Amino acid sequence: MSTPLHTDICILGGGIAGLWLNARLRQQGFSTLLIEPHTLGGGQSSKSQGIIHGGTKYALHGKLTTAAEAIAGMPARWRACLDGSGELDLRGVNVLSAHHYLWSPGNLISNLAGFFASKALRGRVDSVKGGDLPPVFSNPAFKGKVYRLGELVLDVPDVVRRLAELGGNSLICGTVQVSGDSSTGIGALQVDGQRIEARRYVLAAGEGNEALLHSAGISQPAMQRRPLQMVLVKGPALPALYAHCLGSSPKPRVTVTTHPCADGQWCWYLGGELAEQGTDMSAPALIERAQREMAELLPWVDLQGCQWATLPVTRAEPAQSGLVRPDNAYLQAVGNSLVCWPTKLALAPDLSDQAIAELQRQAIQPQCAQPVTSLPQPRIAPPAWDTLFS
Fold first, then answer.
1. Which of 310, 270, 267, 304 is nearest to 286 (CA)?
2. Domain 97-154+225-316: CATH class, spelled out
3. Among 46, 66, 136, 189, which residue has the fewest nearby CB atoms (within 10 Å)?
4. Which of 171, 151, 176, 175 is nearest to 160 (CA)?
5. Are 14 and 34 in contact (CB under 8 A)?
6. Where in the chain is CATH 3.50.50.60?
7. Residues of the chain with CATH 3.30.9
C-alpha cells in the first residue's frame, strides 16, 4: 500500500465553491488537496448563467426579502476581487457585462417604480433611458422600461480557470472512495488507491455530496434537488442581452445572458420562470414556448436561422421544508467534516467565510506541508454552449 498523503484540508468537489475555498485556505497557509473526479466546474458551476446577484430578483413583489438581504453585498465583493483589491486576485477574468438589467415589455413595472426608487434599493437599481439603454433596447419598437441593477455577469469557465490557477498543485483528478460515520465524519478516503489523510474534510461536491454522505455513513444533513430546464439559442449575430424580464409574478418571466462560443458565434442562455416551468416539458415543446416568448418580448430581433437546445439542470441544496429555495449558503460540521452547499454562485465567498470561521472555532491552524502527488490534475469543463450544438 502506498504511503498516505497528509494535508490540513481535503476538499471534495471542484466547482466554484470548492475552488474558491481552496484558494483562500492556501492563501492563509493551509496545505490543501482538492479532489475532482470529472472536470472542474463541470456540475452546477458550468450550468450557471454567471450572474453575481445582488438580490433584486428576490424583491420583485415590492419588498426586500431575507434572500435579497443575504446576497446584497456579493457584487461589491466580487468586483473587489476582479480589480485585485479583494480576498482573491481575479484580475483578468472575463466580465461579460458590468451590469445586469431588468426590463418591462410594457407598463408592468409602473407598480414597482416607487419601490425601485426607494431608499431601500438605493445603489442597487437605477432607471436607464435614452443613450444609456443597452443597444438591444434602442430599437423604436421597444416601448417598455429598463432598470440597471447593481450586479454583474461573469464568464464562468474563465472564473474556474483563474481559481484553478490559484489552486496550483493542490488539484487532483480521480475516483473517490470514502467511509466513516455520523459522529466522527470521514474515517478513510482514497483516490484511485492513494490514501489521503486530512485533519478536516470539506464536502463541496454539489449534487455529488449526497453519494459522498451515503458512502461515508453520514445521514445528516439531507439534500434536496430543484430542477430547471434551461433553453439555449445560438447564432452568429445575437445582440448582447443580460437582463431579467419582468412578468406578472414575483419571479422573472425570463432571464437572459449572452455567452461567447468557441466557434465565434453567440449563445443566449434562458432561465427564469421559463426554465422553472419547463421542467416537465419535452425539449421540443419547451423550445417552441421559448420561441414564442422571445418573439413576443423582442420582436425586432431576428432569430431566424438560430439553433435551439435545452439543458436540464439540477440545483442541489440542503433539504428545506416544501423544497423551498434556501436564503443563504449552507455549512454544517459533522465530526471532522464540513458539509456545504453554496446554493448560489454569487455566495461562494460567503461559504468560504463560514468554512474558515468553523475551522477557527475548531482551532484548526496550518500544520502540514503541501503534499506532492503524481495523481493527474482535472481539466476545466467546456461550457454547454460549446457541447450541445452539432
1. 310
2. alpha beta
3. 66
4. 171
5. yes
6. 5-45+158-222+320-386
7. 97-154+225-316
Q: Does the global pTM surpass 0.90?
A: yes
Q: Which residues in 58-97 are b (16+ Cβ under 10 Å) and which e?
A: bbbeeebeebbebbbebbebbbebbeeebebbbeebebbb
Summarised one tens digit per residue, pLDDT across range 331-386 is: 999 999 999 999 899 999 999 999 999 999 999 999 999 999 999 999 999 999 99
Instruction: List the grid coordinates of 7.
Output: 494535508
> CA–CA distance from 107 to each of 34, 142, 257, 302 (Å)?
50, 12, 23, 24
C-alpha cell at 43: 456540475
pLDDT tens track for 109-159: 545 544 454 444 445 678 898 888 999 999 999 988 899 998 999 999 999
For residue 11, CA distances in Å to 171, 174, 192, 389 come to 9, 13, 16, 33
Three-state DSSP class for residue 223: strand
